[in-house]
Design goal:
Elements (H helix, E strand, L loop, with lengths): L1 H15 L2 H10 L6 H28 L2 H10 L6 H28 L2 H10 L6 H28 L2 H10 L6 H28 L2 H10 L6 H28 L2 H10 L6 H28 L2 H10 L6 H28 L2 H10 L6 H33 L5 E6 L5 E4 L2 E3 L6 E2 L5 E7 L6 E6 L4 E5 L5 E7 L10 E4 L2 E3 L6 E3 L4 E7 L6 E6 L4 E5 L3 H10 L3 H10 L7 H10 L4 H13 L3 H13 L7 H13 L3 H13 L7 H8 L7 H14 L2 E4 L4 E4 L1 H4 L3 E2 L1 H9 L14 H5 L15 E7 L7 E5 L5 E3 L7 E2 L3 E2 L2
Helix pairs in contact: 1-2, 2-3, 3-4, 4-5, 5-6, 6-7, 6-28, 7-8, 8-9, 9-10, 10-11, 11-12, 12-13, 13-14, 14-15, 15-16, 16-17, 18-19, 19-20, 20-21, 21-22, 22-23, 22-24, 23-24, 24-25
Length: 786
């Protein structure tokens, strides 16, 4: 039985064929039939395990794919076979990843892509090739920079074009293109300015061209044009001086024929016109003298035109008048000597227009005047008697306070106004005056009364005053009294016909006011309530449905546009109408409307989401002084939403102040918190990571570049490792936060010809050094900007 059990146990151990199965056999059968064989098996397993462990340790030490494959080939069922297979799989995966990384680096083909490969695979399969690529980029960058410096030094269009032809994808290609565009723009401006100068073609136009473009394409041509104008001006001045010296119409005409566009052409034409005018005036004066045909008229002509065209003819006329005057004097002396009616008649017959004709006529008419005097005395006496005993004096009527509708004089109707005059036919006259709204007045007026004053007394009149809530007088659109429109709304008083009257007042923008008034009411003040004031109160009291209903009534009032936009948005959810009224309000320069319009575009309410338009409206609101617009503009610039991130703009608008709400308060806290992690250097235009954060980071050179490339601060993700000169710019900078730490900081610049060493700088003393190796660790301070 024992032998059978021993046999079964041994077969079981052999079947399992493990060190443990044999050890279990020996434990149960220490002196069994197969004891020695079991011990031999166990010794063999121990020996194989030792060899297995030694081979595994060797494979781990070598830590290569080949070492692990060698281990498995020798110990296909070894203790560490699974771990070895895992290691082999890792190497295969790493190789795949490395190939992917290398292919990516090759595809991007930039210095950064190869540096990223080396950072991840410092001892990779393509390490040497990557280093060679990086060295090539560095050399190309140096050549690029040298060519750029040369182009900037020459600063010509051709120099920049030469740079681009050599470095079509160079670091400075955009700046070079910009410079070329500037030169092309300048050439176009030069061409336009020159064409303008040529079109005007004046000395001033060419001088203005030279002032603006002293060293351009057409400079010499402009100078030549100016010299030509100067020479022409000299000749022009000489010819003008000669014409002025001669001072004749012919001289000025000769000047114009030679210098039709001369400097003095207008003055010459003016002189010619003066001469022509003088000739015409001379002609007119002569015709006038001839028409009057008196000695005096000819003497006046000679006085005005002593050297005129008709001077000799005028003198001859005067001589003739002198001879005639002598004959006239002789005839008059003869008439006076005879001193008879016939002698004077004879004188007048011979000299009807003689020098003494008037005196002769006076002597003839002396007797006639005596008769006329007696006749005048008779007529005057008759007029005095008429006015004293027969004439009726007109009566002037004066009415207050208004003109009457009808006036009856002795029961006959007359339409009269204040100050009208009427003759009263009777000794005592009955006057009756009627005026709507006034009591009829009847008086008796005596014939011949010069002025009558009639005062009318009102009846059944209400004195109406219409005001707003601030007691400001309002002129209504329409007034209804007992259902009938009264269009003369400027009147101060209205007649009430019934014992109780209904007065209804209409005014755009105000609620209709209806009031009951008795006919004996004397004074009435109606206060109209502004729909806008009631609507805004309802809005402030959060009675939005009422507010919307009221604002709809005054939708043409520009003050209501923001409220309509807001209420349609939040109450009716009618985004189309909301957008319509926000746009009207924003066009009317309402900051709140512009901001809320931006919110619609930002949220995509009533319009597709458009962050760019949202930002434009936020900024417009901010520039109009809207506090919520300022808050949203700050957020846009800070997060780069709808515009590029711009920290300077963030600070500019932040200084204007944000409203007190959760969003704006949290935004302000975040900005202040993030600003504490950066510094903007105005002198260089660079933004630096705060040294307080940077001082905690120590990296290898590759690690430093990777750290900056993966850094995100203030919404920016384009951080990089600075150049040695950029680092040097912040040495001993008093206004830069926390720069006074000592220690070496990495730069991005390697030291040629070696690719294993890079420049560092000690921020405290400003000394440039090179690190022993890129694999050593220094501090990192990241930068962004040009």
């Amino acid at each position: 039985k024992q032998e059978k059990e021993d046999e079964l146990a041994w077969n079981k151990a052999k079947k399992q064929n493990t060190q443990k199965s044999y050890e279990e056999y020996l434990t149960k059968y220490p002196n069994g039939r197969y004891t020695n064989e079991a011990k031999a098996k166990i010794d063999k397993f121990i020996q194989e395990e030792k060899e297995d462990n030694l081979a595994w340790d060797k494979a781990k030490k070598e830590n290569t794919k080949e070492a692990y494959e060698k281990y498995i080939s020798k110990f296909s069922d070894g203790k560490h076979k699974n771990e070895a297979k895992s290691k082999i799989d890792e190497f295969i995966q790493q190789k795949k990843e490395e190939n992917i990384a290398w292919n990516k680096a090759n595809r991007e083909n930039t210095q950064k892509s190869y540096e990223e490969y080396l950072t991840k695979y410092p001892n990779g399969r393509y390490t040497n090739e990557a280093k060679a690529k990086i060295d090539k980029f560095i050399q190309e960058e140096k050549a690029d920079n040298l060519a750029w410096d040369k182009a900037k030094k020459e600063n010509t269009k051709e120099a920049y074009e030469k740079y681009i032809s050599k470095f079509s994808d160079g670091k400075h290609k955009n700046e070079a293109k910009s410079k070329i565009d500037e030169f092309i723009k300048q050439e176009k401006e030069d061409e336009l300015a020159w064409n303008k100068a040529k079109k005007q073609n004046t000395q001033k136009s060419y001088e203005e061209y030279l002032t603006k473009y002293p060293n351009r394409r057409y400079t010499n041509e402009a100078k030549a044009k100016i010299d030509k104008f100067i020479q022409e001006e000299k000749a022009d001045n000489l010819a003008w001086d000669k014409a002025k010296k001669e001072n004749t119409k012919e001289a000025y005409e000769k000047y114009i024929s030679k210098f039709s566009d001369g400097k003095h052409k207008n003055e010459a034409k003016s002189k010619i016109d003066e001469f022509i005018k003088q000739e015409k005036e001379d002609e007119l004066a002569w015709n006038k003298a001839k028409k009057q045909n008196t000695q005096k008229s000819y003497e006046e002509y000679l006085t005005k035109y002593p050297n005129g065209r008709y001077t000799n003819e005028a003198k001859a006329k005067i001589d003739k008048f002198i001879q005639e005057e002598k004959a006239d004097n002789l005839a008059w002396d003869k008439a006076k000597k005879e001193n008879t009616r016939n002698s004077y008649k004879e004188y007048l017959t011979k000299y009807p227009n003689g020098k003494y004709a008037n005196e002769a006529k006076k002597r003839l008419e002396k007797e006639q005047r005596k008769i006329l005097l007696l006749l005048g005395i008779f007529v005057f006496s008759s007029i005095v008697i008429y006015f004293k005993y027969f004439y009726i004096t007109p009566t002037t009527f004066h009415f207050t306070p208004e003109y009457p509708d009808k006036v009856y004089i002795n029961n006959t109707i007359h339409y009269m106004s204040d100050g009208d005059q009427y003759k009263l036919p009777r000794k005592y006259n009955k006057i009756k005056v009627e005026k709507e709204g006034y009591k009829t007045k009847t008086i008796s007026v005596k014939q011949g009364t010069s002025d009558v004053f009639i005062k009318l007394i009102r009846k059944n009149i209400v004195h109406l005053k219409i005001v707003d809530a601030n007691n400001n007088t309002i002129i209504p659109d329409t007034i209804q009294i007992n259902g009938k429109n009264v269009y003369n709304v400027n009147k101060l008083a209205y007649k009430l016909l019934l014992s109780n009257n209904t007065i209804r007042v209409y005014k755009s923008g105000y609620l209709v006011s209806t009031i009951q008034v008795k006919k004996d009411k004397k004074d009435l003040t109606i206060v109209l309530q502004s729909i806008y004031d009631i609507a805004t109160k309802a809005f402030n009291d959060k009675k939005y449905n009422k507010a919307l209903k009221l604002f709809k009534l005054i939708s043409q009032d520009k003050r209501a546009w923001f409220y309509l936009g807001y209420l349609y948005e939040y109450i009716d959810k009618d985004y189309d109408k909301s957008k319509y009224y926000y746009e009207k309000g924003c066009d009317n320069k309402d900051a709140a409307s512009c901001n809320n319009l931006g919110v619609l575009y930002d949220n995509g309410e009533g319009t597709p989401v458009d962050y760019k338009k949202a930002f434009q409206y936020f900024k417009k609101s901010a520039d109009l002084g809207g506090d919520y617009g300022i808050c949203n503009t700050v957020a846009s610039y800070f997060y780069g939403r709808g515009t590029k991130t711009n920290i300077l703009k963030v600070k500019k608008y932040l200084d204007k102040g944000l409203p007190n709400n959760t969003f704006c308060n949290n935004l302000k806290k975040k900005i202040i918190h993030d600003f504490a992690k950066t510094f903007y250097d105005k002198n260089t235009g660079l933004m630096w990571q705060d040294n307080k954060d940077a001082k905690t980071v120590q990296k290898t050179w590759s690690g430093a570049k990777e750290y900056c490339a993966n850094l995100t601060l203030e919404g920016y993700d384009d951080w990089r490792l600075p150049t040695i000169d950029e680092l040097h710019s912040i040495v001993n900078t008093t206004n830069l936060k926390n720069v006074a730490f000592d220690g070496n900081y990495w730069s991005s610049i390697q030291i040629a010809p070696s690719t294993s060493v890079a420049w560092v700088i000690n921020i405290d003393d400003g000394r440039k050094r090179f690190s022993p190796f890129k694999s050593s660790k220094s501090y990192v301070r990241c930068v962004r900007g040009r």
